[in-house]
Amino acid sequence: xxxxxxxxxxxxxxxxxxxxxxxxxxxxxxxxxxxxxxxxxxxxxxxxxxxxxxxxxxxxxxxxxxxxxxxxxxxxxxxxxxxxxxxxxxxxxxxxxxxxxxxxxxxxxxxxxxxxxxxxxxxxxxxxxxxxxxxxxxxxxxxxxxxxxxxxxxxxxxxxxxxxxxxxxxxxxxxxxxxxxxxxxxxxxxxxxxxxxxxxxxxxxxxxxxxxxxxxxxxxxxxxxxxxxxxxxxxxxxxxxxxxxxxxx
Length: 249
Prior knowledge:
Elements: E1 5-14, E2 17-27, E3 32-36, H1 43-51, E4 60-65, E5 68-69, H2 75-81, E6 83-86, H3 98-103, H4 111-120, H5 125-128, H6 139-153, E7 157-161, H7 169-184, E8 188-193, H8 196-199, E9 204-209, E10 212-217, H9 219-229, H10 240-248
Parallel strand pairs: 3-8, 3-9, 6-7, 7-8
Antiparallel strand pairs: 1-2, 1-4, 4-5, 9-10
Helix pairs in contact: 4-6
């Protein structure tokens, strides 16, 4: 079985609505794969299913990680295998310092790794290392701290849910470089985004609409289709076959 992550015919129903529909995806080892789509397309739900969050058990289909069927695995089991998720809206771990927050799940607790990870997300360690993680941090700061923590973990698979959420334009370039650097430390990235600029760094892209993959291929091709066809989405309740035909017209 090719690829570190294989998703086969995955479906998820919540509140009597099919959120993920017959979803198929393959992510190659040490690559960046982008799942791109508008808000509400099912991207975050996909991330939660892949990570095994409570309430997001698929109704059908299978998930394979390193050729192992992990569909029934808990979030803890998946984390132990080397999977991790950077949330679109990071949780607060109030009372911890930024240093402790980053080191919680890191095997190598070297201070140099912590500092390096903070530098990579444009946060000065001399300012942030001993700062308390609390509500005084902005959403963008929390997002960058979480991305630094995920990078420091050196996961086998990093699922990054909207890593640019709440990030200012100046910091965005740093975040893009950080995502590229995951490959250099031996990680595979599944990048979930609605911004074509962020998706463009991926090796391959998957376009999701109404919970289904409607196109996949080289990132430039998929980003162009997304930019021209999907930013002002008219696809609600339109059969997938009609969307694809429209895009190929």
